[in-house]
Design a protein that fits this description.
CATH topology of the largest domain in chain B: Quinone Oxidoreductase, Chain A, domain 1
Distance between the termini of chain B: 18 Å
Strand content of chain B: 15-25%
Number of strands of chain B: 17
Shape of chain A: elongated
Structural class of chain A: mainly alpha
Number of domains of chain B: 2
Helix content of chain B: 25-40%
Radius of gyration of chain A: 29 Å
Helix content of chain A: 40-55%
Oligomer: heterodimer
Order of helices and strands of chain B: EEEHEEEHEEEHHEHEHEHEHHEHEHEHE
CATH superfamily of the largest domain in chain B: Medium-chain alcohol dehydrogenases, catalytic domain
Order of helices and strands of chain A: HHHHH
CATH architecture of the largest domain in chain B: Alpha-Beta Complex
Strand content of chain A: under 5%
Number of helices of chain B: 12
Radius of gyration of chain B: 20 Å
Number of strands of chain A: 0
Amino acid sequence: MEPTITTDRTQLKGWGIDADPKNDPTYPMRHRTDQDHAGYSWERPTQQPIDIEVLHSNERPNVSAVFGTASPPSGLSGVIRRFAFKYSENSYLHWLPLILADRVNVVEGVLDDLVHGHVPNIFVEKGYKAQWKYDRTSLILKLATVALVAGGAVALLTGKKTPKSKHIRSAR
Amino acid sequence: MLAMNFRGPKRVRASQMPMPEIKHPEDAIVRVTRSCICGSDLHLYNGNVPDTRVGTTFGHEFTGIVEEIGSEVTKLKVGDHVLVPFNIACGRCVFCKQGMFGNCHESNPQATAVGGIFGYSHTAGGYHGGQAEYARVPYANVGPTVIPPGMDPDDAVLLTDVVPTGYQAAEMAGIQPGDTVVVFGAGPVGIMAARCAWLFGAGRVIVIDHIEYRLEFVRNYAKCEAYNFRELEDPVLFIKKTTDWIGADVCIDAVGAEAAGNAMQTITGRKLLLQAGSATAVHWAINAVRKGGVVSIVGVYGPTDNLIPIGNVLNKGLTIRANQASVKRLLPRLIEHVQNGVIDPKALITHRFPLEEVADGYRIFSAKLDNCIKPVLIPPSAGM
């Protein structure tokens, strides 16, 4: 449904009778101009050539005059991002897929590293060198917890298999 | 060129990246001389901001020497040493014309709720940031400002975000002479907000945090009271008691999405990402301010939803004011303050890392190791 727009507000009974421009809670963040209510009317800057894929919010009619060119959408994460941009910034279907795409993109990043012959040095990338220097105890605790959880998971998985197979054998 | 390279939550490295190019006639390319890690970079680092893509370079607080300019750049010349506001602003859209340079409508195609910001995910325009040897700076006639002769580059780099954001937090709060101002968060922005609250005539300034070395720092730097909320039964109750059971006139949230202090907020906001960060600080601010008071928010949150006591905002008749700092609008006044010794930004800098050690810098700042307040990255080609 199209919004109802009152074209001449001055005809509304009582319009503006209590207006007090000095009572402006947005001051000093905003200096009012005579173009305040002119909408999308300014003289736009030169458009940056759109020579990469730019996903733009559907809450605006166009790509902004300038934009960043870091990491255009690609791969599976790109597919998810394109889906997300079908929905407005008001929708969870915009933001939640973008978070999912970010996580998928991390895996793509590791694969891309490996394809290019680079094995990521996780210890260095996570800054553990610095943590080893300044906060060794919590780093050791963290690594021990990870090892314990991983070891527990492996034990749980391998431990389940043995009795199951015995049971099958005995049933036969 | 060498640049910070985001690989995933809590994983970054310095690696060789392509040199930036002029993409628009109003672009400039600068050789970065200083680049900070900001508290809000930690939201990206921790994976809390949607559309943070692998391979992006962070960094929205930097200074640099102009190496190349586009055909329509008239206000800068090659060789100028500039400080680069974190907002990318066209200077001619309806918002820029109103002085809202943090809300430009011609710098971010991906989202309408926020203007373009250097190195701050595709939700803020998809720009590479300044944690690199070189950076592309759009709208070079508008944002970048030549560093005044004699100004220390360490002061200049903090004028790109920390100082204006702290100052605007106090400005938005509409502080009246004698007001009691409570600042939640003793990070660099909270420290600066506490310092600037005095400039607006505050009668009493109280800072709340839980990191003891930061509380000690802000007590000395901003000459204010500072309390550890871990040692208080309830920070809101404490503020009520200490303001004669009325509440503070003004509360400032200088923390944002990474706030500690409330298990439910931490689990839902930081661990499970069921809300756009932990809203503990803004929650406390709403509850600790007096009826009819002002809550000023400069802490950064994600774009979805947060759990805050909106009913109390109504019942108490509060005014909430919030924005990304309009750096360009504030710069003339703040440069004056730095030159006159009213504000001493560089005192906040506690750590310097070569860009090659960016991963260690993030870890130390994020985990608050080695009494870190503000880390600065120095690229190998900085030359100073």
